[in-house]
C-alpha cells in the first residue's frame, strides 16, 4: 500500500492497477468517476449515427469504448465481422500497421507509459510500463512493471495480449490483458486497451486507454561538442569489412533506433578551438567534468535521459584511453567523452572503431555494464565474456578481436536490449532521492564469493593502512601475483577506475557496496608478463569517493574484497582486508572530518584537484589544512598532494562562447607543496609507497617542464635512492629504477 500526503492528513492511495483506484482517485482529484459498463449499440443504431454525422472513424470509436471484460470484446468483434463481410469479399490485401512502441494513458491521478514490444525491429515479445502519480501541477514516478512471457493472438483484426507482470510495488493485481485493433497503413495506430486482473480470482482491476505516442520505447536527448581538428564519427557501412548480421549503414542515431531508443540529437553543436599542443592539449578528468557541468546546454537538474558527448583528441592517461563516462552524485549519468588519438582516419577500420567507442560510452550512460561485469548491474545479470555486444571489448572475446568483428552484428545482446527497452525506470535513470532505497535489494556480497577452484596460477592481494581517521582519503593497493614460474600475460590496468578490478566494501552496519568511480575509463587494456623475475604487479586506487558519494563516512570496521577479471574469463577473488575508521579524538579532528566529508571535496580528491568554479568553495575550505594551525595535521598531506598536483598542470576551461582558456602551471607553488608531501612520506607520515612514487615522479617532470634541468635530474635520482633503501622486493626496486631512468624522456 502506498500513501499520499494531502492537507496534512495521510490517505491510503490505491494501487494504479487495483479496482479501488477509481474511488480513491475521485476523492483525491474530484475530476472523474468510476467508469461504467457501456451498452453495446446495435447495428441499426450505428448505421443511424453514421448517417447523421460523417465522416466517422468507426474502428477508432469501437476501440475507444471502455470495455471491461473479454466477453464484451468478443461480442464487439462479432458485430464487426458481420459488418465487414462485403469488404472482405474484395480480393485486395491492405498492409497492416505493425504494432509496437510507446503508448500513454491516464486514469484518475495515474499516468501510464506502456511499451509494447511484439513487432518491429528485433521484437523481444515483452510488454512493460511506468506509472506516474499526478498531484496538482506536479507529476512523480510511482513504479514500473514488466511482463516478459506473453501470449498474443489475432482474431478478426484484434490483437490480444495476455500475461502476468512483475511490479515494483506490492500488489495482487498482476495479470493483465491488452487489446489493440489492427489498422491499415493509411490509418493511425489504434489505442491500446489495458485491463488489470487479480492474480488468483481474475477480478477486474483498473483499465487504461493508451494512445500511441511514438515508435521508440524511450527517448533521450544527445548534445555533442567537438574539439577543432577532430573529425567525429558520422556513419559506418557494415559491409565494408567482414561481420555478422545484415549489411547496413549505421550512425549513432540509427544504432540506438534499432535498440528502441529515439536519440534526439542536434548533431555537432559546437566546434571548439584549442590552441595548446602536446601534453597541455590532453584532457584531465577534472577538466572534462568541469566542461560537462558548465556546457551541457540541454541539461536540467532532474531525472531524465539527457547526455552530453565530447569528441576530443587525447586524454592525459594516454592514447590507449578511448572513452570516459562521468557520474555526478545524486544525478543521472549524463556525460561522456571520446578520444580519437589512436583511431583517427576515414578507413573502414577506424570508422568502425569510432562508432563502436561512441555507442559503448553512451551505453554506460544508460547504466549498461561491461559484458564481463553484468553481475554488478542493477538488477544483476550473468557475466558473459563471449557476448557479441557493443558493451564487450573485442580483445576479450574468445578468439580475440578478429573473431569478434567477424561475428558481431552491431547490436546489443538480448539481455541489454531488455534493459534498454523494458528495464524499470530507476535502473536506467539514477535516483536523486537519498530517502529511497537502492534500485535493487540483491545480495551484493554474493558477488565476491570465493572460487571453489582456482587453476589460473594467479592470486589477488589487497594492502592498505589498517587504521584511518574519519574523513581520511582511503587508498587501496591491489597486487596481482603469479604462483607459477612460467610466463603468464595479464592485464596490468589494476586501478579500479578501469573496470578490470571491482572492489566490494562491507560497511560497519553490514551493508555491502561496490565502489563505482565518478569517472569510468574505457581504455585499451595494457598487458604485462608475470614470471619468476617479475612475479607481481601493483597499483593503487583511491576508493573513498564514488558515484554515490563517500564510502568510508562512518566509524567502525570495514571489510574489503576485490575481483580481478583475467583475459581468459577467469575470476580471481582477493583475500579479505579489514580496515578501521576511528572516532575523532578532539575538536580539531571532528572539524576536519566534517570538512573532508563534503561531497565537493570528494570530487577534488577523485580528480586530484580542480579549478572548476563549482568546486571553488570546496577548494577554499581545504585551505584551512594549509594554514599554520593545521599544516602538520595528518590529513594536511592529502590536501597538499591534490593541490600540488593541480598547480603543476595546466587547466583548460571552456568559456561561454565555446573557447578554451588555459591556466598555466604555478611551478613554484606546486613544487613547494609536493616537496612537503614527499618529506612527510619519507618519514612515514604521508602517502603510501605507490602514491609517494607518483608524487616524486610528478615533481621531477615539473622541474623539467619549468626549465630547471639540474633539479629535474636530482629529483629523478632521489626516486631510486629512496626506494632502494626501503625493504622492498628486488623486482619492485628494479621496476622503480627503470621508471626513474625514463622519467625525463620527452613526452611531447
From TrEMBL:
<feature type="compositionally biased region" description="Polar residues">
    <location>
        <begin position="1"/>
        <end position="10"/>
    </location>
</feature>
<feature type="compositionally biased region" description="Polar residues">
    <location>
        <begin position="17"/>
        <end position="39"/>
    </location>
</feature>
<feature type="compositionally biased region" description="Basic and acidic residues">
    <location>
        <begin position="41"/>
        <end position="61"/>
    </location>
</feature>
<dbReference type="GO" id="GO:0008237">
    <property type="term" value="F:metallopeptidase activity"/>
</dbReference>
<feature type="region of interest" description="Disordered">
    <location>
        <begin position="1"/>
        <end position="67"/>
    </location>
</feature>
<dbReference type="InterPro" id="IPR024079">
    <property type="entry name" value="MetalloPept_cat_dom_sf"/>
</dbReference>
<protein>
    <submittedName>
        <fullName>Uncharacterized protein</fullName>
    </submittedName>
</protein>
